[in-house]
Design brief:
5-stranded mixed β-sheet; about 190 residues; alpha+beta; 1 helix; 9 strands; single chain
Length: about 190
Amino acid sequence: LNFNTPSERPKNILYENIQPQVKITNFKLFNKDLPVGENEILTKNITLTNHISLKHDSNVITFEFAALQFPFSYRCEYAIQMEGFDKDWRNIGTDRTVTYTNLSPGNYNFKVKSKESGSKWGDDFTSMNIYIQKPFWLEWWAIVLYALFTLFVLYLFRKFTVAWEQLKTNLKLEKLTHEKDIELYNFKQQF
């Protein structure tokens, strides 16, 4: 074989930019598979779901995913990003699972993309919206109740402080009046 230019040498040949489609294959809560049913978190199979709503204490979640590149999916690399948690894409290599723990209440968008080993990352990705509900003690009406309670306590504190100062003033006035009465009595006795 005669390789005339460096770009014709086998080690310099780059893979074509192959970006296999990715599917989310499983969703776990606290490392346990979720049942699918009408009154469950997942009402249909995870591959058909694009939005999941969780309670505030359900904040340890695991995604499993796979690239649709048969029979060579083992050569695929993955990058993930949880919008609202991760700032940028994270390359996780050939791992096909990712776990997030202690997610705060709010909206998140989990995104995963793949590429064949040696190729460049593309712009196509698979995503799933996750909503973690606020606990009732952080809802707007609870915060309004906290504010009203705080204002009530401040009002009582102010009323107590004013009453205390009034009592101290009355005691001083009474002491001065008593001292004047004694002074007047002594003056009358001397006269």
